[in-house]
Design goal:
57% of the residues lie in helices and 18% in strands. It is of the alpha+beta class. The protein folds into two domains: 35-68; 77-144, SH3 type barrels, CATH 2.30.30.
Length: 145
């Protein structure tokens, strides 16, 4: 009876020991993972990729746009043709580098002047570009008639 109980306890432990020994031997024989395998098994990789795409898609273009806008506002000078945020077209009459106020002329006669904030200027209209476009439109319309 004791022999029977002993064999029921010892034999499973012996089999378990054999299985554990074989599994450990297989793990020891497994090759070392390569650099790429180690890199892709890193749990921080998805977080780093998300931060990289967030920066390149959102932050960098916004930073570039703000720098271009600051350059545009600092380059304002007298007789520049501009368009404001509200869609008002005009010509700069006076601007000082240390002031946030720009005076523009809205009509061709020169009687109507507006004082606007420098930050309200969205674009500086290039007269050469405008004349080329109007010349192209005139040429297109003359060929159609």
């Amino acid at each position: 009876m004791i022999l029977e109980i002993f064999s029921r306890i010892v034999v499973p432990i012996d089999v378990l020991g054999f299985i554990v020994t074989n599994v450990l031997a297989q793990d020891a024989a497994a090759p070392e993972p390569t650099f790429v395998e180690k890199l892709f098994s890193n749990p921080l990789l998805p977080i780093i990729v998300i931060i990289f795409f967030f920066y390149t898609m959102l932050l960098a273009p916004e930073k570039r746009r703000k720098a271009e806008e600051a350059k545009l506002l600092s380059s304002l000078k007298k007789n520049d043709r501009i368009v404001t945020v509200g869609g008002i077209h005009g010509t700069v009459v006076s601007v000082s580098p240390d002031s946030d106020v720009v005076t523009i002329r809205c009509d061709e006669g020169g009687n109507t002047r507006l004082k606007i904030n420098r930050s309200a200027v969205t674009t500086i209209v290039n007269p050469n570009k405008e004349s080329k476009e109007s010349g192209r439109k005139d040429a297109d319309s003359s060929t159609k008639t």
